[in-house]
Specification:
It holds the Pfam family PRAI. By secondary structure, this protein is α/β, with parallel strands linked by helices. It contains nine helices and ten strands. The radius of gyration is 16 Å and the shape is globular. The relative contact order is 0.16.
Length: 211
């Protein structure tokens, strides 16, 4: 199971994420309490090397600015967290994660038809387009039949509930932000506990629960 920790804002935290086995980190360039500049991301990227995927999170940003920041910050993946149409994603040169707010009544078939490498399902929008610390009803996805190999689950995940979330939704990866924070800052102990919990879940754990 892959893990992305989003909202990383300093090199020390990024290096720790790498040390404990995080697969990807997210740099938020959209309006958010975790927003950072291209220059900050560039500095972090220079100290990280190439073993950790760097994801840039954007909300309704201009294509040219995304491409410029991606180049400057050595991004590996672009995450679109706004209302970007399919043709916008198709113009991007890097792999794309498209985030959608998911709730009862949402048409999963329409979401999955979006031309992205990965689909991220998040809780309904709060003050920001993500990182609001709330979850949606995972059981809405439990019995749905679709390709889960490109599904990333986000929204209100933490070490207490992530195992249940994985068993219910069976995603390719999970994405956490506020669930590994204390007083709005990334907490190394919570980060490590989250990683250990997720990496400790095996396929047998959630295959058995769906029989």
């Amino acid at each position: 199971m892959k893990v992305k920790i989003c909202g990383i804002r300093d090199l020390e935290t990024a290096l720790y994420a790498k040390q404990i086995g995080t697969d990807a980190i997210g740099f938020v360039f959209a309006k958010s309490k975790r927003q950072l500049s291209a220059e900050q991301a560039e500095e972090m990227a220079a100290g990280l090397g190439k073993d950790l995927l760097k994801v840039g999170v954007f909300v309704n940003e201009e294509l040219e600015k995304i491409e410029s920041i991606a180049s400057q910050a050595s991004l590996d993946v672009i995450q679109l967290h706004g209302d970007e149409p399919p043709e916008f994603a198709e113009k991007l040169r890097l792999p794309v994660i498209k985030a959608f707010s998911f709730e009862k009544g949402a048409k999963l078939s329409d979401i999955l038809s979006y031309p992205a490498d990965f689909i991220l399902l998040d809780s309904p929008a709060g003050p920001y387009r993500g990182g609001n610390g709330t979850s949606f009803d995972w059981k809405l996805l439990e019995k749905e039949s679709f390709d889960r190999s490109r599904l990333i689950l986000a929204g209100g995940l933490n070490k207490e509930n992530v195992k249940e979330a994985i068993r219910t939704v069976r995603p390719f990866a999970v994405d956490v932000s506020s669930g590994v924070e204390t007083d709005g800052k990334k907490d190394q102990e919570k980060m490590n506990q989250f990683i250990q919990t997720v990496k400790g879940v095996t396929k047998n754990d959630y295959i058995c629960t769906t029989r």
